[in-house]
Amino acid sequence: MTVIYETRRARLAALLAEHGIDALLVTRGVNVRYLTGLVSSNAAVLVREDGSAVLATDSRYIETARACPGVEVVQERDVAGALVKMAERPGIEAHDMSVARYRRLGGEPAPVEGVVERLRVVKDEGEIEALRTACDLTDRAFAEVITTIAPGMTERRIARALDARMVELGADRPAFDTIVASGPNGAVPHHVPGERPVERGDLITMDFGALYDGYHADMTRTVAMGTASEWQRELYDLVRAAQRAGRHALAPGAGIQEVDAAARDVIAGAGHGDHFVHGLGHGVGLEIHEDPFLRPAGAGRLEDRVPITVEPGVYLPGRGGVRIEDTLVTRAGGPELLTRTTKELLIL
Ligand code: ZN
Ligand code: ZN
């Protein structure tokens, strides 16, 4: 890993001049982690034009920081204040810093946005391996928990079972708040699991994932409890076809809008365009939602080795919904599927 962090900092250093700065004061925790390996709630790193870096943190993290390869370390509570003085024309991460904190820094550091986030889009194979493990834990937890779901079990209990199983299998923790939405609750894309017991004839949507070594898996499956009616099967087949179209559109060089449209057009063609109320997917990595975002108004093109979700859904108010989501990685030879749970309609 030693070389990886130095390579990342060198890539960042090479971008500084085009922003008119000679160093970047990185204060966003996830970006500090990406550039140094340090996981801390109070740390910042200054990366200079020549690739050298100074990492500041307080006494709680100082020993871990000293073990980070290739960086000078300073112990200071005010991490940003300590580092900003060490450059002539420093930039700051404007999307991370409050106006108050900016004022306290003094001088006039140049606000820049999303520079490290942009670097993080294309993953190295080590990052993809961590995601692969996270997705495998997610698949395994699902396979085990669905054998225990029965009428009368509440949404909340199912969510807790998924969370617990992921951790028992080796996840650091759930990657985000698990969604379990049953029956009519399935019409709410981000339903918070509650005390509703699942019933025979329900569709149950489960959206969850494992966090492993800092990397976030994200998967959604909709299953049927006991039996599936005609409209439920039709809706499922539609979303499944849209999801397949979206997956097949994933390729290095593909336009963001085109990928979103590949799936959206399938749903719109069936008259449900107004019931697909969110973007098609999002990047995953050190954050659960990160660039690139697949949406109708999205700009730009996909690159190679970008982990991303494809998650179309159709939501029918008062009745229920279906969402199917995988985490994949763009590859020149076709996308690599990381979440491998079947997309056949499962009837529990
Ligand atoms: Zn999800
Ligand atoms: Zn997602």
Description:
By secondary structure, the chain is of the alpha+beta class. It folds into two domains: 2-121, Creatine Amidinohydrolase, Chain A, domain 1 (3-Layer(aba) Sandwich); 125-337, Creatinase/methionine aminopeptidase superfamily (Creatine Amidinohydrolase), CATH 3.90.230.10. The chain has helices at residues 2-13, 29-36, 62-66, 79-84, 99-105, 115-120, 125-145, 155-169, 230-249, 256-269; strands at residues 23-26, 43-48, 53-57, 72-75, 90-93, 110-112, 173-174, 179-182, 203-208, 210-212, 215-216, 219-224, 281-283, 290-294, 307-310, 313-316, 320-323, 326-329, 336-337. The strands form six sheets. The protein has a six-stranded mixed β-sheet with strand order 4-3-2-1-5-6. Strands 7-10-11 form a three-stranded antiparallel β-sheet. Strands 8-9-12 form a three-stranded antiparallel β-sheet, with helices on one face. The radius of gyration is 22 Å and the shape is elongated. The structure holds zinc ion (ZN) (2 copies). One zinc ion (ZN) binds at residues 218, 282, 309, 311, 325. One zinc ion is lined by residues 207, 218, 220, 311, 325.
Largest sheet: 6 strands, mixed
CATH fold name of the largest domain, please?
Creatine Amidinohydrolase
Overall mean pLDDT stands at 97
Strand elements, count: 19
Distance between the termini: 44 Å
- Give the class from helix and strand content and strand pairing: alpha+beta
